[in-house]
Specification:
Blueprint: E1 5-6, H1 11-21, H2 23-29, E2 31-35, H3 37-45, E3 50-55, H4 59-62, H5 64-72, E4 77-80, H6 84-88, E5 97-102, E6 116-121, H7 126-139, E7 143-147, H8 157-163, E8 171-175, H9 178-187, E9 191-195, E10 201-202, E11 212-216, E12 233-236, H10 248-268
Parallel strand pairs: 1-4, 3-4, 6-7, 6-11, 7-8, 9-11, 9-12, 10-12
Antiparallel strand pairs: 2-5, 3-5
Helix pairs in contact: 1-2, 3-5, 7-8, 7-10
Length: 270
């Protein structure tokens, strides 16, 4: 853990700030930043290859497991001077542990498989997308395909924090054109099911145990009607009382775990 302690003007610190704030910089460098000990530890636990771990003053003593994990993995550890994390952080409370990783860019492999795939269309809230990715990993979903011109960047710092490391545990792909993505998914043999607030088949009456794609729309607008020719059906989560619908991240969790339940049940059926 030796070496210089970096100040706010060091090129590596300027790079951290740029990667945290600029999607174009993340694309150009094919890299992104993890903010906070929770997500960095989550990445290490999943065997993620991190380029560098950065520690604020006192962080090495506060988070020895991160230091040990990084050293065992041969990941360089760099120390930051007092006040540096405050200058680069995007969080209200600056995080004492940062890391840089290569971007997670799943290939077409994320579109293949025999299980469940989550597809989002123009989901714009970073917290929602991060939670969807986290639910996908926890439920054993094959992958998440993020689509739409107005979709949040998968590597946005709040998305990454919200995954709590799950972005390293499940295949994630980002495509601008939802039609092209849905077409490829259909050609791969998956049954593409729109999720909508009302009018669809109740989700627990639909076979989700096989190869299917659960398609979730924008938080306010849902799915555009123009996508209908590229969908094979629609499902709805019934809600009680005066509730209109579930939040998109909550809906993704309900549906992905129902699919997991059905797969388990199918596996033990005679």
């Amino acid at each position: 853990m030796g070496g210089a302690t970096l100040g706010p003007r060091h090129r590596d610190v300027r790079r951290l700030r740029s990667l945290l704030r600029d999607a174009r910089a993340r694309a150009d460098e094919d890299a992104f930043v993890l903010e906070g000990p929770r997500v960095v530890q989550g990445a290490l636990d999943r065997g993620a290859h991190l380029q560098t771990v950065y520690l604020a003053t006192g962080a090495a003593r506060a988070f020895p497991a991160i230091v040990e994990g990084a050293e065992l993995a041969g990941i360089p550890i760099v120390h930051l001077r007092d006040g540096v994390v405050e200058k680069v952080s995007t969080t209200r409370t600056p995080q004492p542990v940062l890391a840089v990783a290569s971007r997670r860019a799943a290939s077409g492999a994320a579109l293949s498989g025999t299980g469940t795939l989550l597809v989002t269309v123009d989901v714009s809230d970073p917290g929602n997308l991060g939670t969807i990715i986290r639910s996908a990993e926890a439920s054993g979903t094959d992958g998440v395909v993020v689509t739409g011109e107005n979709a949040v960047d998968v590597h946005h710092p709040k998305v990454v924090r919200s995954t709590a490391g799950a972005i390293f545990g499940v295949a994630v792909a980002q495509e601008t054109d939802p039609v092209a993505a849905l077409r490829a998914i259909g050609e791969g043999g998956r049954h593409r099911l729109a999720t909508q607030a009302r009018g669809g088949e109740p989700y627990d009456r639909v076979d989700l145990a096989g190869a299917c794609a659960l398609v979730l729309g924008n938080e306010a607008r849902g799915l555009d009607e123009s996508l209908a020719p590229h969908l094979d059906g629609a499902i709805t989560i019934p809600v009680a009382g005066h509730a209109e619908s579930l939040n998109v991240a909550m809906a993704a969790a309900v549906l992905s775990f129902e699919a997991a339940r059905q797969r388990r049940a199918a596996a033990v059926s005679p």
